[in-house]
Amino acid sequence: MNIPEYQCDSYDVAVIGAGHAGCEAALACARLGLETIVFMVSADTIALMPCNPNIGGTSKGHLVRELDALGGEMGKNIDRTYIQSKMLNRSKGPAVHSLRAQADKQRYTASMRRVMENQEHLTLKQAEVTDLLWRELADGTKEVTGVKIASGGIFPCRAAILCSGVYLNARCIYGEVSQYTGPNGLPRATKLTDSLVAAGLSVLRFKTGTPARIDGRTIDYDAMTVQKGDEPVVPFSFTNRAEDIAREQVDCYLTYTNETTHEIIRENLDRSPLFSGDIKGTGPRYCPSIEDKVVRFPDKERHQVFIEPEGEYTNEMYLSGLSSSLPEEVQIRMYRSIRGLEHAKIVRNAYAIEYDCLDATQLKPTLECKTIHGFFSAGQANGSSGYEEAAAQGLVAGMNAALLLLKRDPVVIDRSQGYIGVLIDDLVTKESREPYRMMTSRAEYRLLLRQDNADLRLTEIGHRVGLISDERYDLFVKKRDAIAEELTRLNGVILGASESVCEYLRKIGSAELRTGTSLAELLRRPEMTYEMLAPLDPERPTLDAAVIEQVEIEIKYEGYIERQRQQVEHFKKLESRRLPADLDYTAIPSLRLEARQKLQKFRPENVGQASRISGVSPADISVLLVWLGNVSRET
Amino acid sequence: MRIQTENDTIAAIATALSPSGIGIVRISGPEAVNVASRVFCAGAAQRTDVSAYESHTVHYGRIADPENGRIIDEVMLLVMRAPRTYTREDTVEIDCHGGVLVTKRVLEAVLHAGARLAEPGEFTKRAYLNGRIDLSQAEAVAGIISAKNDLALRNSVRQLGGRERAEITEIRGELLREIAQIEATLDDPEHLSFDGFDTTMRKNTESQSARICRLLATADDGRRIKEGIRTVIVGRPNAGKSSLLNALLQEDRAIVTEIAGTTRDTLTEEVNLRGITLLLVDTAGIRESTDVVEALGVARAKEAAASADLILYVADSSAPIDPADRLILASCKGKPMIPLLNKSDLPPAVSAAEIGALVDESMGEGQYACESKRGDVDGHREANTATDPIMISAKTGEGIEALEERITEMFFAERLRADEECLITSERHKQELIAARDSLARVQESIDAGMSEDFYTIDLTAAYEALGRILGEEPDEDVINAIFAEFCLGK
After folding, report:
1. Cross-chain CB nearest to A570 (options B5, B122, B489)
2. What percentage of residues in chain A have a pLDDT greater than 70?
3. Between the CA of residue B319 and those of A291, B81, B387, what are the distances in Å?
4. Contact A92 B491 (CB under 8 A)
5. Could you tell me the pTM of the whole model?
């Protein structure tokens, strides 16, 4: 059946999807003054959290703080709607401290919706986008001209950002049941994949899953371990102080699976679509279903199950650790075998979901498509997983779409500047076989990329782009300067080995001084803190806790930090050697064949990126450097 | 991945091993003169400030290792300041006279003084990047770099004995397990914990560190890495390969019998021919065999031929040409070769001309006895013309002298050379072992200083990568894969 087409209003930017990526992308564009329209399958599900009820966690918390420093919304939104907050890994080094907050899912969605609805230059539209419209340019490349929606409406635009999440040709599966919907029974998008393929793009099929939600009234919490939030909390957004967002926190609970649970799973494995072969999509290794865990780790006697509230105004509880695609009747038996869940009633059962996504190696580090000008892509559509990963990409794609239309230089966060840089570089450089999740071990300069200094790393960029106000920027500069001044002061103030000094050191169990020693040197002692130095440092200025934190970390970990800075310097050298966009790698015979093919396919932006492509050896990079020397001297 | 950028100071042995034992250690880069000052002493002085020397002047003196002050060799030192040098950087060359091992020690002293071991082809690369070499030679330069890397990689594998390789692989495995344990725990602190981890971690790091130190000790005693012209004797079973080996060695090591195929193992012997060191490899007869043991021997022989610097092809003059001869010659294609016609004491069944024709036919005319150009720095080496088969009798010793003459002739004409990449590779192995050892020492320091676990992985990873470079492996996603393979993570 042919649906007649009709012309609609023109926009600068069309954002396809209003999940975590879409919201950040749309807000960034609108805030930079571009007329932006965002399409969604349901206006009730803006920034929906269809899986876990939390924001942040190891390495993901870093992403949210970086996002905030760049002018994103996620940090502010979770600060408005959290119901419990925790700094993970607090007993470990500062580089791996990670913030995680439980969200009130409904309020999270409602709050983001309010922000979106009240954003100047932003239009919200409930509709399924069916086609990406483009025209071919003289040089054979393509350019975005608009998008078409299911009703036939054509919205001309100069840039489009794909943030389709898990909705493209989605299928939800549990046991023998297949539902052709997006998550939570929401409508899926069935046409857009074909349109993307017709535009010459290649797509992958990925899979993920979510556990069941249980009626909280049917859970015996007394049989479980209670998990409390931190007091006081650390806000995600650098614009908030702890006291601004303090609130009473709700509890989470911990229980375990047992041999009976595992027995039930093993007996019914043949009914799991993951094992029967019904699911073809590639699932993530980091977030395995419980049946995966039982099969892959047969010696493990029990697996943890965290019981987390979905919100303050609902009884639904999320069973973290029990993602599954077993038939519902097996699920219920499995849950009821677990201590505290003996009488559990399922509100929503666990399921797996399959969906189409783009092969992200078709994108530049700006998240613009290499072959279609003005077409950007972010989030699960790029094969990542997680709300935070999506939001981070959404912001970068949004910023760069806006900067492109404003004819300004793009923004690329590199691997030494943030987890966002690591995330995007990995996505566009590594051929991934599973949904990509951020992990701290993926960041090679982890000690420099701490969640506590995300503002120091990125506020400058956010301000330059125009997403950080002058007012906020001024505050940031003050903080930055205060840290530098205090570092200089602590290195400059020398304490003599006087009796009073030694007596105090003895008292706090630290070694006495032999010779004059700087305050910084004293602070470097493992047992020493900035606070403990106070009696020896009467002249010290009154400083914010955030400033003191930075000063302490810089001094205490100076040796390690310095080494990483040197590594970064080396990294930057390769990163700054740009590769010409039209370089014909097949014409460099000294490159090994595999390297030639990979480089021709990826067309990396610079030598650093080239070096990270698997199949390109250091010797190939040497050859490339020689070639570049040639090119640059010829021109 | 480790990629070198262009502005530090590098050093390497810049010459092929020469018969007179002269070796040149070349230092290039902004710190070249300072590095030289740390190792050079003119006259009785402890140290001599080389920066006082004028450019392009030669000086007599001694080299001392800055680590222990020991004198290594008497040398001539050549100071050349940028830009009138090969690389267009400050360059110092040290001419050493004491032979292979001493040249190697001098290089080590220079590395101790702050230079970095040059990557294969790096001098040429710099010469090019600094505009010293003409633009039109870009492809030639790129070719040299890629060939040298290939060669280094092959050498790396061939130099590493099976035991060392297994040992390094095992140490890496242990390190990777530690890294994965830490990273998994950091990533999923609610499911995994570090309880009791510090003690096992410390013990394990100590024992891995001790294993690396043992490897380093064997690297130092010079037994593990043999340097010389790797010479492989090939030929049909019973053509007289082992007899030839014995004739050259003048002792009875290999089993010599009348039954074809009795040499089951590859033997390596060192022989000094008029000042040139040959590493002689005897192989089992190359022939498709159904005997399992011998099939292994044959495969090994083919392998040995592939990594040879010189091939001695032995034909039996008392027996007619066999299809096996063609097979053997085919597997030696592209290598410098000397054909030998053995058993001149027996009535001939085949003539020198016939063998010469066979060699031409099997390997392509002018191909044999011509070194592959890929490893050649300057790319202008000529083909060897002295290709006539030499009549010998391994039994009576007839013709052995002619063979020795031919080898030295080829060597002096630089048609043959011991592989300097060999030296660099072994030195590189050592440098990487040292890097790994030092990284593990830093892990211990972090543990002692009471740092938390996430600090350990910085240096553990560095050690893991250094060992990986010895094996020619890139880390890529090793850690992530190990985490998923061994730990149960996830929401």
Report:
1. B5
2. 99
3. 70, 63, 21
4. no
5. 0.80
